[in-house]
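Below is how a single chain appears once it has passed through the pipeline. First comes the sequence as given, then the structure the pipeline wrote out for it. We keep one example in the README because the format questions we get most often are answered faster by looking than by reading.
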Amino acid sequence: MNIAVWTVISIALSSLSIEMEKKNIMRLKDFREIKVAPEIVRKISNIDFDRLEKSSFSVEVERFVDVVTKNLPKSNLDTLYNNINTLEIKTVPFLHRSLGRYDSTKNTIVLRKTLEECIYHELFHMASSKLIDENKLYSGFEQIDKKFMIGVGINEGYTQFLTERYFHDYTSLDVYPLHTLAVSIIEKIIGKDNMQNFYFRNDLKGLVEALEKYCSIEEIMQFLNNLDSLTPVFNNRPFDSKKVNKVYLFLARICSARLKEDLEKTSNIDSYFSIIKDFFASVADERNDYLTDDLVQNINQAIEEKRKVYQKKKDIVL
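Resulting structure:
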């Protein structure tokens, strides 16, 4: 297919994405709209390595299979097994507003030439996506049908976070910095195993329910909506600093709530600030560069508000 045809197709897809954004992303979703993903049943018992060796990007695909099968529990590999043996990979000279794309309807990865290193990101999409009756897509934390879409932002963030975690030696692309910061903090709060399991089992509802321990359902849904609208692939408008700050504030709130027990156990507020610092230092080395002044300020503000509340309840040495 020539460059002109691919250009037309890419622009058409972009226009469709913009329309989906207007109708879906900008509308604040209700928690009740999030579906419970159908159970994933492994239909394929073995990976056809003979086919992989003859396919495009065989080295990268075999490396991906080797790494994830060694690092993930078997329960997180069902979708990988179901998709890997029929996966097709191709390159094109141009993709509008995208470096790569996984098409779940055709089980095909399309990569922009000269930027093939994003293949690992797309392979994670392949290993976490399933299409139900050609009408409903579950891809990691993302849910899409003809009338509804949610979880695009958090899904892209965690997909890239996993790419950086397991394939940092093979990719240097620095994409979705805000999104990867957000998911790294969320994972630190609810636990790595839980986060990965929610992602590979397409359990966005489970993720929301896990976060409900630290904030309201309404706050979580607003956070998901904000992160969706800040996702470049579905947003051609200028970066919205107000929504970025709202994301920071949400992260500050859940961090503060998560560390509530530590505050109650210590008699010195300075010790609590030390706990906060240690918490963020352990989130992920790659993400520390994105702990912005705005986020730190919001965290400190949230902590100060809680400090005043707790000071009324008990004697805290300042």
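Residues 1-18, 284-290, 313-318 have pLDDT under 50 and may be disordered.

See the next section for the split statistics.
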